[in-house]
Amino acid sequence: CHHVKNHIWYGMAAQSFLTFAAFYAAYRVLPPLARSFGFSGTEDVANFPLMALVMTILSLAALPAVNFFSRQLETAADLYALDVTGDALAFVSSMEKLADINLVNKTPNKIVEFIFHSHPSVEDRVKLAADRVGQNV
Q1: Which string of DSSP letters, residue by residue, matches 43-55?
Q2: Pick from 128, 117, 134, 135: which is nearest to 95 by CA?
Q3: pTM, two decimal places
Q4: Who has the most CB within 10 Å: 48, 76, 80, 92?
């Protein structure tokens, strides 16, 4: 489903943009921050842990947006699969089996899902399937 909808290209474009934005933000923030810690500049090897910290903070700040984007692509792929097959029962069965195999929490806290989950919850996917196909699942 993802290849039909060109989601791989969208993901690569989004990741490229975010990587550029993170390095640009680090480029702007790191020199004054490094000087405040007494480093001679960003080229100082001892500066590496500070750079890693800055990049980690930027990555964590972007995580909810990245995961929201990913969940939107996953939902679009689910809708495509449901439209092609028209079989909500098979879709729900596969989601349930995958969740059991991967030990997934099927009904996570919505805040936890928003921040940390790159895929919609099984509960949301089951509701989507029932609404889209109109089968009682």
Answers
A1: T-GGGHHHHHHHH
A2: 128
A3: 0.84
A4: 92
Which residue is associated with the tokens 């929201």?
68
- Which residues, 6 or more positions from 58, have their beta carbon under 8 angstroms from its beta carbon? 22, 25, 26
What's the rounded Cα separation, in Å, for the pair 82 and 89?
10
Query: Nearest to residue 68, comparing CAs of 28, 120, 109?
Result: 120
Q: Tokens standing for 66?
A: 């990245």
Tell me, what's the pLDDT at 95?
96
Say yes or no to pLDDT of 66 above 80: yes
Q: What would the pLDDT profile of 8-44 be if each residue is shown by its tens digit?
A: 999 999 999 999 999 999 999 999 999 998 888 788 8
What's the token pair of residue 113? 């899902």
